[in-house]
Design a protein that fits this description.
heterodimer, A: 401 residues, alpha/beta, Rossmann fold, 6-stranded mixed β-sheet, 15 helices, B: 271 residues, 9-stranded parallel β-sheet, 13 helices, 49% helix, 14% strand, binds pyridoxal-5'-phosphate
Chain lengths: 401, 271
């Protein structure tokens, strides 16, 4: 018999992870807290997305791009040696094997296709580590669009290779010199820029954050992860559905896409945050970048900077749907330290021959800890989304190890 | 309908009375806590002929502000400015004879909850409020508690606001309607955007509430032009650039006086 940990609500509430309620609400979270100058642009994106998502022609075109350009479907890999060592049965959903090396491409191809349908000529994006920026530059090149990517000056120094990749792909990379000069400030600057460019540009947000419809739209573009994994689990696992579904959470897009495939099952959903960027675990109600959600703040209500070894988890908030899933008890959010994540990355490399992105290594670090500590009972099945590959992180790891 | 002048709060009554007296309205902005003795700027503005004064409560992530007000916000926060301290400074001031209007991002309103926030504004003698990231469809939670506390939240309208929304904004706005002159962030510009006149005209056709044009208005000449289409202007970045460059209250008094003079001349000309 398996023991049930006390922190879970057993039954998934009906309709979880469907369309948000009126005005883009997930419970009390979400909404469209955009400056008035962006409200009409958000409404246009919302309308275009609803029409496109209901149009088999659009769905077919996106599915084809995901297949022939991005390399989908991605495999489900049983982590054999690691599973044996941990005493659980671990399966990896391999988003690291997509073109450009992370799940970010799923969302970007969707939004880029939508932008062309809306007659937009240019994509605007923010990026932290550069993964979303590279994906945006890639999709823009593929579809013949211009791309302008905002990136904090500090991240430009830390991620020089990705900056070069974006420029090689033809994107303009704009350094952001204000605030903490990282992802939060790049996002603010991209929004400011969009205010003056709504006529010809689409703002391609990289995670399940921002004003309605972005959190919902980005989750829908990422749900291909969960939908594929659901079918693969049904074919692969004796039980059909894994006991646990685990993903790392920055803004929360790979987790939202993964969870969406399992929200109506008995699988327990776990989002893993970086200790220094734990919006869902330690955030407090607020509004930033267009949505009402949980954000790290000081006692005066100023947003604090996130700090993580994984640049993609360096965001002081979390998408509104995750805040809602947390409140419902449908998903649990936990944190992992830089050291645990780095150790997990090395362990996966040595047991399975896979070097994960440091973001994804957070999810694995929790699996390792939970298997040892009893949160994951022996013999349970675990599906973990491996959101990206670790090439971008080798220099960080080299300094650490 | 009751007479709107009687139903209006003190900010709106004050602005209407001055407008109806033929005056072009002037609302200079200062970032709260920007320098020691920062409230001296407020007295200087009042002396120089301001009709209302906007006080920014600095936020870490000012997503609708250009570089000048971003820098001012960061500088104020680095000095230890906070909503609490700024409101305490304001509470200690003598009556300046013009209404004070706080402006900030919604995160700071939500921090202690809209009710406590509005009560704190009122205790500090602040009667108006501007929240640029709170559009009309999300404003319900604030409008009712603000009304109960005696605070008037002014809503923003932008050049891309469609007609039905514009009518709703004009109807639900309190104090005045803030017309965002251009599609962009705050910050000085070389000229008055063409979109300014059109938007102000559209608002005036659906509402009798005072209309203030803001964003980009930086010079006496721009203020004069704006006055032809709207009831008055908000001047922020042009003030804060001077403050960041070291200008003191006397320098700002002189600058605000040039704006006052430009608005008065335009009134004489058109009146
Ligand atoms: C590989 C990888 N995983 C995860 C993330 C975090 O984003 P999200 O939480 O939206 O999936 C990023 C962001 O850059 C990433 O590059």
């Amino acid at each position: 018999m398996r023991t049930v940990s006390p922190w879970w609500e057993p039954a998934p509430p009906d309709g979880t992870m469907g369309e948000p309620r009126a005005r883009g609400r997930f419970g009390d979270y979400g909404g469209r807290y955009a400056p008035e100058s962006l409200v009409e642009a958000c409404r246009e994106v919302d309308q275009a997305f609803r029409e496109a998502w209901a149009d088999p022609g659009f769905r077919g075109a996106l599915a084809r791009l995901l297949a022939v350009h991005a390399g989908r479907p991605t495999p489900l890999t049983p982590a054999g040696r690691l599973s044996e060592a941990l005493g659980v049965r671990l399966y990896l959903k391999r988003e690291d094997l997509t073109h450009t090396g992370s799940h970010k491409i799923n969302n970007v191809l969707g939004q880029a296709l939508l932008a062309t349908r809306m007659g937009r000529r240019r994509l605007i994006a923010e990026t932290g580590a550069g993964q979303h920026g590279v994906a945006t530059a890639t999709a823009a090149a593929l579809l013949g669009l211009d791309a302008t990517v905002f990136m904090g000056e500090r991240d430009i120094e830390r991620q020089a290779l990705n900056v070069f990749r974006m420029r090689m792909l033809g994107a303009e990379v704009v350094p952001v010199t204000t605030g903490s000069r990282t992802l939060k400030d790049a996002t603010s600057e991209a929004m400011r820029h969009w205010v003056g460019a709504t006529g010809d540009s689409h703002y391609c947000i990289g995670s399940v954050v921002g004003p309605d419809p972005y959190p919902w739209m980005v989750r829908e573009f990422q749900r291909v992860i969960g939908d594929e994994a659901r079918a693969q689990c049904a074919a692969e696992l004796r039980t059909g559905v894994p006991d646990h579904v685990v993903a790392c959470v920055g803004g929360g897009s790979n987790a939202a896409g993964t969870f969406a495939g399992f929200a109506d099952t008995t699988a327990r959903l776990v989002g893993v945050e970086a200790e220094g960027g734990a919006g869902a675990s330690r955030g407090r109600l607020g509004v930033l970048h267009g949505c009402r959600s949980l954000f790290l703040q000081d006692d005066d209500g100023q947003i604090t900077e996130a700090h993580s070894i994984a640049a993609g988890l360096d965001y002081p908030g979390v998408g509104p749907e995750h805040a809602h899933l947390r409140d419902l008890g449908r998903a649990r959010y936990v944190t992992v330290s830089d050291d645990e994540a780095a150790a997990a990355a090395v362990r996966l490399a040595r047991t399975e021959g896979i070097v994960p992105a440091l973001e994804s290594a957070h999810a694995l670090a929790w699996v390792i800890r939970a298997a040892a500590g009893g949160d994951l009972p022996a013999g349970s099945t675990v599906l973990m989304t491996l959101s990206g590959r670790g090439d971008k992180d080798v220099s960080t790891l080299k300094e650490l190890l | 309908m009751t007479n709107p002048t009687l139903a209006a709060g003190e900010v709106e009554r004050h602005l209407r009375a001055r407008r109806d007296g033929g005056r072009g309205l002037l609302m200079p902005y200062v970032t709260g806590g920007i320098a020691p003795g920062w409230t001296d700027y407020l007295s200087a503005f009042a002396d120089a002929g301001a009709d209302a004064i906007e006080v920014g409560l600095p936020f870490s992530d000012p997503t609708l502000d250009g570089v000048t007000i971003q820098r001012a916000s960061a500088a104020a926060l680095a000095r230890g400015a906070s909503t609490r301290r700024i409101l305490a400074d304001l509470a200690g001031l003598p009556d300046l004879g013009v209404p004070l209007v706080a402006s900030t991002y919604y995160n700071l309103v939500l921090h202690d909850g809209p009710e406590a926030f509005c009560a704190a504004l009122r205790r500090a003698g602040v009667a108006g409020l501007i929240v640029p990231d709170l559009p009309v469809h999300e404003a319900g939670e604030l409008m009712d508690v603000a009304a109960a506390a005696g605070v008037e939240p002014a809503l923003l309208a932008s050049p891309t606001t469609p007609p039905t929304r514009l009518a709703e904004i004009a109807a639900r706005s309190r104090g005045f309607v803030y017309a965002v002159s251009l599609m962009g962030t705050t910050g000085e510009r070389d000229g008055l955007a063409a979109s300014a006149a059109e938007l102000a005209g559209r608002i005036r056709r659906v509402s009798d509430r005072p209309v203030l044009l803001g964003f980009g208005i930086s010079t006496p000449d721009q203020a004069r032009r704006a006055r032809r289409h709207a009831d008055g202007v908000v001047v922020g970045a042009a003030v804060m650039r001077r403050v960041l460059d070291g200008a003191g209250p006397d320098d700002l008094r002189a600058f605000i006086a040039t704006l006052r003079q430009a608005l008065d001349q335009e009134c004489d000309r058109s009146g």
